[in-house]
Specification:
The strands form 5 sheets. The protein has a 7-stranded mixed sheet, with no helix packed on it. The protein has a single domain, classed as Jelly Rolls, CATH 2.60.120. It is mainly beta and 277 residues long. The longest helix is centred in the N-terminal third of the chain and has 8 residues. The protein has 2 helices and 24 strands. Helix content is 4%, strand content 42%.
């Protein structure tokens, strides 16, 4: 498990591109045949992946946490981003996840195992875990049963569909929120005008991009913006003080996940274009 430490926005103003990428971009999260985890000191959020091929993968305890199992004091959100079907077995109960299906696993679940229905076309499970104080029921939500929210328009190049999976009016959790945004063809912008939310951090996984496509992800304080060039299946860790907006060379899909003090999806502080520099 890799560890990423929190940063001071005053220091970030002086970071070069290499340092920005090292602190805020996860470049190689998805690795076949293994589970890979990144622990962020922003709200102690974990982003991770599991790509099972010929044998199942077990989510094992992390020794540094001094717990008996991974979810002893945590909750977990899982979304399959691959065309390959996968299975998650939680304490003996099996859940089948097709592409873009979501599974929430509450605190106290001891055994979490991942497998692919077809090892030659494996599932790619994206994992996000936050600390928890209460056990909520395990719940699956398939993409076709999720309620879509349509936003934006072609004139602003931001026509998109948002699926809210884990949130106050959907799958219940302690503090984890998780969902997915799909940009329509010929639309490239997300979250512009931007916003910040000092009460929680956010992680972005960009995917469904071809090899040559890129997303230019904008971050930083509104008056001190920076950018990161992001490839397919890479993750941005966005601090609470930072904007998080992007524009792609073509349309793309991203999974957003949040953890922190406030559980309300609309809790955000808008930034006007006049403030942006």
């Amino acid at each position: 498990m890799e560890v990423r430490y929190a940063t001071n926005p005053r220091d970030v103003k002086d970071y070069d591109t290499e340092r920005l990428r090292k602190d805020f971009l996860i470049e190689s999260l998805f690795q076949e045949g293994s589970i890979h985890l990144v622990y962020s000191h922003y709200d102690r959020l974990i982003t991770g992946s599991a790509i099972p091929t010929t044998k199942p993968l077990l989510l094992e305890k992390v020794e540094e946490w001094k717990t008996d199992y991974f979810l002893e004091r945590r909750e977990l959100g899982i979304i399959n981003i691959s065309d390959g079907e996968g299975k998650v077995i939680v304490d003996g109960e099996e859940y089948v996840l097709k592409k873009r299906d979501c599974l929430y696993v509450g605190m106290g679940s001891k055994d979490v195992e991942f497998s692919s229905s077809n090892p030659s076309n494996p599932a790619k499970f994206y994992l996000v875990s936050a600390t928890a104080h209460k056990t909520y029921p395990i719940q699956k939500l398939a993409i076709e049963k999720a309620t879509p929210k349509h936003l934006g328009d072609d004139s602003a190049s931001n026509k998109r569909t948002i699926y809210q999976y884990i949130h106050e009016d959907g799958i219940q959790s302690c503090q984890l929120m998780m969902g997915m945004t799909l940009l329509a063809p010929n639309n490239m912008w997300n979250t512009m005008p931007p916003h910040v939310h000092e009460r929680r951090m956010e992680a972005y996984l960009y995917f469904d991009m071809d090899e040559e496509s890129r997303v230019f992800h904008f971050m930083g304080k509104p008056e001190e913006t920076r950018h990161l060039v992001v490839k397919n299946e890479q993750v941005i860790l966005s601090p609470p003080w930072s904007i998080h907006s992007g524009v792609g060379t073509s349309n793309y899909t991203f999974i957003w996940a949040m953890a922190g003090e406030n559980y309300t999806f609309t809790d955000m502080d808008g930034v006007s274009m006049e403030e942006m520099k």
